[in-house]
Amino acid sequence: DGGITQSPKYLFRKEGQNVTLSCEQNLNHDAMYWYRQDPGQGLRLIYYSQIVNDFQKGDIAEGYSVSREKKESFPLTVTSAQKNPTAFYLCASSRWDLNTEAFFGQGTRLTVV
Amino acid sequence: AQTVTQSQPEMSVQEAETVTLSCTYDTSESDYYLFWYKQPPSRQMILVIRQEAYKQQNATENRFSVNFQKAAKSFSLKISDSQLGDAAMYFCAYRSADSNYQLIWGAGTKLIIKP
Prior knowledge:
Chain A is mainly beta. Chain A has no helices and eleven strands.
């Protein structure tokens, strides 16, 4: 079945550590996105990528980094520079068309301990 | 820049009744798409329904329908015959070519279904 897989589902990070969240899709979508969701809030865009080896900052990119070496994969690294990383992270993908919806993974809950 | 506003943080409805969730947006564009997504307790985002701005006819998907009023920039979601499984957060989203195809999200409405 086609879809998006995020791993791990839960992740714990010590202060000062970098952690990487995985996102893989087999939908042959060009575009991939990372969102952050805090309690009671909507989704905020961290980074997005339209094609391999290219990505753009979203609204809250500070303290995060990404790579897009393969079409299927778009990992997100939460660096120690991110001051408040505890949140729910959602990865999505879509065709690069106006009229198509985004498909989402099941999310990763990151907690700083 | 485009914005999306969901003015109802929480709504409740009796099972089997009808509920309407509000969404308004601000844009100067004429070509765009609107979406309603559902996020159940599992937190997986699921597309409920979408509407093309150039279409005057309101989209429907089984028990879900929209009331799209382009001039008023309003895009409400009506859920008929509410079921316990409809309990979730509902997000309205806007997508346009001018925003580089980005999805602009509302803050969400929590829908509670009373048995």
